[in-house]
Amino acid sequence: MDVLYARGRATAAEIQAGLPNRPGYSAVRALLRILEEKGHVRHEQEGARYVYVPVMSPRAARRSAVRHLLDTFFQGSTERAVAALLDNSRLSSEELDRLARLVEEAKKKGDSV
Predict the structure, then answer these.
(1) How far is CA 113 from the centre of its chain?
(2) Do residues 66 and 93 share a domain?
(3) Mind spelling out the 3-state secondary structure of 76-96?
């Protein structure tokens, strides 16, 4: 999806060329078919080629992926996910301060709703 978002639209061959450790062409086509079945991409036919286009915005895709991650590994709990990330990270003092500010901003938004 990263390659597709960066290009806006691309053929399977163009997507394959943009991937690190290039998987086989058949693997790329199979993944695109799965992504299309799930509603993440669609294709347009241009001559004999299929050109793939993302259906969701990157922001919507990110939100969907995070929701899936939370549901799959953390029983839907954002708190558990954040605790796991903090437990396994080596954050600097500055990074922890930025996170603390984000938590405070989230609290203020929650109070105003």
Answers:
(1) 28
(2) yes
(3) CCHHHHHHHHHHCCCCCHHHH
Per-residue model confidence as pLDDT tens digits over 13-68: 999 999 999 999 999 999 999 999 999 999 999 999 999 999 999 999 899 889 99
Quote the CA–CA distance of 100 and 91 in Å, as a whole number: 12
* pTM given for the model: 0.67
Q: Tell me, yes or no, whether 85 and 102 share the same domain.
A: yes
One-letter amino acid of 63: R
- Which domain covers residue 44, as residue numbers? 2-54
Residue 32, phi-psi category: left (phi > 0), alpha (psi -120 to 50), beta (remainder): alpha
pLDDT at position 112: 65
- Which of 34, 54, 74 lies at the terminal end of a domain, its last residue? 54
DSSP class of residue 56?
Answer: S
pLDDT at position 37 is 95
Instruction: Give SS3 for 28.
Output: helix
